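Re: the pair you flagged

First of the two:
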Amino acid sequence: MATTFPKLTSILHILISITLVAAKSDRFSKTLSPSSVKLSKQKLSHLHFYLHDKVSGQNATAVRVAQAAMTNQSPTFFGAVIMFDDALTMEPERNSKLVGRAQGMYGSASQTETGLAVVMNFAFMEGKYNGSTLSVMGRNAVFSTVREMPIIGGSGLFRFARGYVQAKTHTIDLKTGDAVVEYNVYVFHY
């Protein structure tokens, strides 16, 4: 009997050790220090550009991809979903320097005003941000003077991004729906 107890204790000790090793190797997450993934000091950047949303003509950059049965009877086009790939330029003129593309979708989400639910990425193609993106998701009350939407993330030089954008209509053609929108972007990133 005296020899059985130490054997049982040894077996239990081995089983507990194996369980602890297995638990450690199957961890779902762990805490990291920012320096372990090469994050430097956080900085605040301001970007300024113009978005060209062209919904009319052969070379439209924004197209309706879905709608509700009642969308065309709604004064706000409630239920319309538009996919877009809009140019981002340095100046309001379409032929000014291209700095990136705004790619995503917006839907008419209000039955009482022209209010859009917006999901978009700013994909930059110029300068030090070439290849980096910012992701924006929020409400855009189109006829408000300035609309603010949150930055919810980013990639490349904008990893761990957070901040906000301010959109202000520069020009809009009420007949065609084509618009140029000025963006001021305030973003914290590493």
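Second of the two:
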Amino acid sequence: MKTFIIGISGVTNGGKTTLAKNLQKHLPNCSVISQDDFFKPESEIETDKNGFLQYDVLEALNMEKMVAAISCWMESARRSVVSTNQESAEEIPILIIEGFLLFNYNTRVYEPPDSPGYFDGHVWPMYLKHRQEMQDITWEVVYLDGTKSEEDLFLQVYEDLIQELAKQKCLQVTA
């Protein structure tokens, strides 16, 4: 069974959800799972020495629930494809998983602004830590240029996805 899973990652308030929802509108058979939906209650979030709640760490998330949601989607997609007994590129189930683990700090503009020191003292160091962990993994990762417009980023990702789906269709025809 073929599925297409896309990860969109970046710094907090960097446009990940906007991109994911925009792609979902334009791609057939597409679902989105957002990491923001899996934060633990505020009472379970640690506070740093400056008094900031530590939302930009994996410990602030219920990753078990997120993994379960992804597994549930995969099982549902498998049953859906098996029940139709055919699979064109348009019918390949697509899952977009978006979360806060990677992005480009230099061009970040956020309104309203964070509390003084929060981004530099917490968000950015956590981003660097998580980015290094991702770079150590051998997956194919495409980094987007955060200086481009929202529309340009969408078009770049959308065109890449359409090309990949077309490749999947060619593989199905020749298989």
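Confidence is low (pLDDT under 50) at residues 102-109.

-B.
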